[in-house]
């Protein structure tokens, strides 16, 4: 099962935390659980945060928001949770692990096509008759794709409903599909191989990224500082470069 | 030692019993964890969902097809490895076990590189016969076969090495051709090994996830097998995922238990 490695990571982090669980600010480790789509941007934000806070190390656990929410509600020791959608943040809030999440980024779907756009895709309607990949409705990017398709009134059927946005893009990178419905941030990260075609219906399915410090955070103060930092100007600039929109 | 021999029940040495019990607990406890979390009241409603039955049916059909393919190609490969006499045999044996070591997701990418639209074989099939394999049920069967055939090969090769070649020689002396000797003498002798291998192969194919979702994608009714349905259910509803896993487990345990008792009781 795919959750095996995720739980193993959580277990590893647990041992890591007991090894350096001192509370004094001089030598603290902040553990951030963040959605996989945030990997590049939040790693960079973490590096800047470290540079501005002496003796602070930021550790990350990047995975699907649903896996992270499950790990947190099962008691994984995390300080901050950044989710790729509100549904998974709600799970954490409902479980009593956090209470005041704030939106720090927005993400929208684009149609990713091979560089040069050989099939001349200009909008959702052009996907009819092409082999394309989309996320499964069970994951946030699939819910967004469904909403966008409903908004356009077209009945779109991909050849595959992928388990996450990275594997959806991978099918395009391997040349197995003509197009893929992915987030703008994913298309930008793969800009040397794919072009991003914007389409108006994606405005109906904007994904909201909430962040929160967790109630059981081993490093309460640092968790609050990091959350504020992500909402601040410097971090927002990094997110914008990665293709996210400001809330 | 006559006293030891006459004793009715042989005592199990504590040095074996203790690790055996610990090991069993390790294997069985996670199952107990699943059982404890399972929402039994929801079970009937979940099982009645047509999408789930589709996934279960697809899993059973494709795993069985993959086992048939593995038997068809795997038994001859095992024979080649056990009885063949050619240079590079041990290298070949090592290569056969590659799918056992390769992370299944990587195996799926490798299959795409060969059978995909732009793959070496795939592009030829596409141009020549207008055939595309990825995202089809055929792809599911191929992914399962790739991952599970080594289990059959290793098991059958072991059986062939353990089998006494003098019976085959005797059959040859009595005028049987090599093919007749194989089908009438060798195959019956190694039947338990073949069945044990087929059972392992089927079980591995039934649980296949990584290569399938990478090579065949995920489309309900066409390529969405039970493990894929379980993984996606896990994204939204852990209870549903547990119910589905238990269903898959129950079906495989029933099939395997009945098979083992009937066919492989004799070593």
From TrEMBL, chain A:
Assigned keywords, A-Z: Cell membrane, Membrane, Metal-binding, Molybdenum, Signal, Transport, Tungsten
Alphabetized PROSITE patterns for the sequence: PROKAR_LIPOPROTEIN
Residues binding molybdate, per UniProt: 37, 65, 165, 183
GO biological process: molybdate ion transport
One cellular component (GO) term of this entry: plasma membrane
Signal peptide: 1-21
InterPro entries reported for this sequence: ModA, ModA/WtpA
Location relative to the cell: Cell membrane
UniProt xrefs under Pfam families: SBP_bac_11
Membrane topology (UniProt): Lipid-anchor
GO molecular function terms attached to this record: metal ion binding; molybdate ion binding
Record function comment: Involved in the transport of molybdenum into the cell. Part of the binding-protein-dependent transport system ModABCD.
Similarity field: Belongs to the bacterial solute-binding protein ModA family.
Subunit structure of this chain's protein: The complex is composed of two ATP-binding proteins (ModC), two transmembrane proteins (ModB) and a solute-binding protein (ModA).
Listed name of the protein: Molybdate-binding protein ModA
UniProtKB/TrEMBL annotation, chain B:
GO molecular function: ABC-type sulfate transporter activity; molybdate ion transmembrane transporter activity
Superkingdom classification of source: Bacteria
InterPro entries in UniProt: MetI-like, MetI-like_sf, ModB_ABC, NifC_ABC_porter, Sulph_transpt2
Residue stretches spanning the membrane: 12-36, 56-82, 94-115, 135-160, 181-205, 240-259
Main location (coarse class): membrane
Keywords from the named record: Cell membrane, Membrane, Molybdenum, Sulfate transport, Transmembrane, Transmembrane helix, Transport
PROSITE patterns referenced in this protein's UniProt entry, alphabetically: ABC_TM1
Keyword Transmembrane set for record: yes
Membrane topology: Multi-pass membrane protein
Gene Ontology CC terms: plasma membrane
Xref: NCBIfam families: Mo_ABC_porter, modB_ABC
Family membership noted in the UniProt record: Belongs to the binding-protein-dependent transport system permease family. CysTW subfamily.
Protein name, entry field: Molybdenum transport system permease
Protein species of origin: Glycomyces paridis
């Amino acid at each position: 099962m795919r959750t095996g490695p995720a739980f193993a990571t959580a277990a590893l982090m647990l041992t890591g935390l007991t090894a350096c669980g001192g509370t004094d600010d001089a030598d603290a480790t902040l553990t951030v659980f963040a959605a996989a789509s945030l990997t590049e941007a939040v790693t960079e934000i973490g590096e800047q945060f470290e540079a501005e806070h002496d003796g602070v190390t930021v550790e990350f656990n990047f995975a699907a928001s649903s896996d992270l929410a499950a790990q947190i509600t099962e008691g994984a020791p995390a300080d901050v949770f950044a989710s790729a959608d509100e549904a998974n943040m709600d799970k954490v809030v409902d479980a009593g692990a956090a209470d005041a999440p704030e939106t720090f980024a927005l993400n929208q779907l684009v149609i990713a096509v091979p560089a040069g756009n050989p099939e001349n895709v200009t909008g959702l309607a052009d996907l009819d008759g092409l082999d394309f990949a989309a996320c499964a409705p069970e994951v946030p990017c699939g819910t967004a794709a469904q909403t966008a398709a409903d908004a356009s009134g077209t009945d779109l059927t991909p050849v595959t409903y992928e388990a996450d946005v990275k594997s959806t893009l991978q099918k395009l990178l391997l040349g197995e599909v003509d197009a893929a419905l992915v987030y703008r941030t994913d298309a930008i990260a793969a800009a040397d191989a794919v072009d991003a075609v914007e389409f108006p219906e994606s405005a109906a399915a904007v994904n909201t990224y909430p962040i929160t410090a967790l109630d059981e955070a081993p490093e309460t103060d640092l968790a609050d500082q990091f959350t504020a930092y992500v909402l601040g100007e410097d971090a927002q600039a990094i997110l914008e470069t990665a293709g996210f929109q400001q809330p | 030692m006559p006293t030891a021999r006459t004793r009715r029940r042989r005592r199990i040495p504590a040095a074996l019993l203790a690790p055996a019990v610990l090991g069993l607990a390790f294997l069985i406890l996670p199952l107990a964890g699943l059982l404890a979390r399972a929402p039994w009241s929801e079970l009937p409603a979940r099982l009645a969902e047509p999408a789930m039955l589709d996934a279960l049916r697809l899993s059973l059909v494709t795993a069985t097809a993959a086992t048939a393919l593995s038997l068809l190609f795997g038994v001859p490969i095992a024979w080649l490895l056990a009885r063949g006499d050619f240079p590079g045999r041990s290298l070949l044996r090592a290569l056969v076990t590659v799918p056992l070591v390769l992370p299944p997701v990587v195996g799926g990418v490798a299959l795409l590189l060969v059978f995909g639209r732009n793959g070496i074989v795939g592009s030829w099939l596409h141009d020549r016969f207008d055939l595309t394999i990825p995202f089809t049920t055929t792809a599911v069967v191929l992914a399962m076969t790739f991952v599970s055939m080594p289990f059959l090969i290793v098991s059958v090769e072991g059986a062939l090495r353990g089998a006494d070649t003098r019976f085959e020689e005797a059959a040859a002396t009595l005028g049987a051709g090599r093919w007749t000797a194989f089908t009438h003498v060798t195959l019956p002798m190694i039947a338990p090994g073949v069945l044990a291998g087929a059972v392992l192969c089927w079980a591995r194919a039934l649980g296949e996830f990584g290569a399938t979702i990478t090579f065949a994608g995920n489309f309900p009714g066409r390529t969405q097998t039970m493990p894929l349905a379980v993984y996606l259910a896990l994204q939204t509803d852990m209870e549903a995922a547990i119910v589905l896993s238990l269903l898959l487990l129950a079906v495989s345990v029933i099939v395997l238990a009945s098979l083992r008792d009937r066919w492989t009781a004799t070593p």
